[in-house]
Amino acid sequence: MKIIIVGAYAIGTHLARLLSRSKHNDIVLIDEDEERLENASSDMDILTLHQSPSNIKTLKTAEVEHADLFIASTPDENTNMYCCILAKALGAKKTVARVDDYDYTDPKLHDFFENLGIDTLIYPEMLAAKDINNGLKMSWVRQRWDVHDGALVMLGIKLRETCEILNEPLKDLCRPESPYHIVAVKRGGETIIPRGDDELKLYDLAYFMTTKNYIPYIRKLVGKEHYVDVKNVMIMGGGATAERAILTMPKYMNVKVIEANGERCEVLNEILDTDQTMVIHGDGRDLSLLVDEGIKNHQAFVALTSNAEINILACVAAKRLGVRKTVAMVENIDYVSMAESLDIGTIINKKAIAASRIYQMMLDADVSNVRFLMMANADVGEFTALQGSKVTRKKVSELGLPSGSTIGGLVRNGEGILVSGETQIETGDIVMVFCHGVSMKKIENFFN
C-alpha cells in the first residue's frame, strides 16, 4: 500500500512510525524543513521528500497518482486541505486532512468537503476530549473504550493491593463462563498478551474486556469500590482540548478552569456554560492558588497545557494534595513512560489518538475502529467477519492466530459476547483483536 504523509510534525511522524512496522507499506514523508525531516525519519525505513508539499511537481514526484492514502498533517489546516484537494485531483484514492476548526467536522459538511477532494477531516482536540471524558466518568479506570456503542467495554485498570485476583493463573480466573477476559497486561516496560499460565501482579496495568452490566463486578474484583465518582473537576489550561472536553462533559460535573492568559479567559467565559464552569485567571503551577480554589474538594485534576513537564508535575502535586483522579496531556511520547512511573492516572496524547484514527483507514478489511494503546504499546481493532473468511471456518483455538495476538470478544446482533477457545465466529460478527508486536495486516488476512 502506498501512503504519502505531508508534514514531519508530531502526528505525521508518529503515524509514519506506526505504519512503517509493516513491510507491505510504501511510505513517503514530505516536508519543507530538511532538519525536521531527518529527525523524523532517522529510525524508520521510509522515503523522504524535501520539497514544498503544496507544489504539484512535488506531488507528482511522490507519485501521488498511485497513493492509496494521502494524509496532510501539518499545523496549518489551510495547507492540509489544499494539499488534499491537489492530491485527489492528481489521482490519490483517499485523502485525510488534519484541521483546527471544530465547525469543519459538522456531518452536514461532509459531502461539501468530499466534493472538494477531502475524504476525511481529523480534529485531534475532539478525539482527545472524548478520551478525557471517558476517563473522568469512571475515576477508578485508567482507560475506557466502548466497542460498538457499548456492547463490549474495554477497561484499563491499575492493580493495587486491594485487587482480589492477584497471583492466580488466568486459566483459573478467565474461564469460558467468566464475565470478563484479560486481553493485555502492561508490567513495567513490558507488554504481555497473556496466556492461561500467566498471573496478574501488583501494579500491573491490566486490560479487561467485559460487558456493561458486569462493570460493577469488575470494580469489586479489582478492589476499587472505595473510589468516589467524579463530580468536581479542576482543569489547568484552557486551550482547544479543554474547551471541547468541557462542552461535551456530563452536566452533573462542575468544572473550574485555570488559565494564565487573560484574553483566553474572556473567550472561555463567552463559550462555556457559566452554570457548570468557572473560569479563573491564574497560574495553575501556583499551589497556593490551587489550595485557595479548593482543589482538595475536587475528585479530578486535568492538566492540559502545551507543556508536558508542567502537566506531569502538576498532576503529581494534585495527587499529593489528595486528588484521586489525574489526567495529563503528554504530547512528547518520550515522557509517557516517565508519567506512568510517577503514577499519573490517564495520559492523553493527541498525536497517538489521531494517528490511530487514521491508521484504520489503511486496512482493507471491514474495520470500524482501531486504537493504538499507547500505555501498553499494543493495537486493538474491531474487524467484521466477512462471509467465507478464514476466521469463520474454525473454532478460535484452531485458527492459528499469530503469537502476540488474541481475540477479546465479539458483537453479534448488537449483543456483546466474550470469546473462548471453543467459540465459533460467524459471518457478520464484529470481533475485537489485540496485537502486540504483530502487524494488523496479518490479522486482516483472517477476516477477508
In short:
It is built from 15 helices and 22 strands.
Which secondary structure elements does this structure contain, and how are they paired or packed?
Layout lengths: L1 E5 L3 H10 L6 E6 L2 H8 L5 E4 L5 H6 L7 E4 L4 H13 L5 E4 L11 H7 L3 E3 L1 H14 L5 E5 L4 E7 L11 H4 L6 E8 L2 E3 L12 E6 L4 H7 L10 E5 L3 H8 L6 E6 L2 H10 L5 E5 L5 H6 L7 E4 L4 H13 L4 E5 L6 H6 L4 E3 L1 H10 L7 E7 L4 E7 L20 E8 L2 E4 L11 E6 L4 H5 L4
Helix pairs in contact: 1-14, 6-9, 6-14
Give the overall silhouette. Answer: globular
Mean of all residue-level pLDDT scores: 88
How would you classify the helix and strand content by structural class? alpha/beta
Strand order of the largest sheet: 3-2-1-4-5-6
Distance between the termini: 16 Å
Number of helices: 15
Summarize the structure in words.
With 448 residues, the protein is α/β, with parallel strands linked by helices. The chain contains 15 helices and 22 strands. A six-stranded parallel sheet has the order 3-2-1-4-5-6, sandwiched between helices. Helix 1 crosses helix 14 (350-359) and helix 6 packs across helix 14 (350-359).
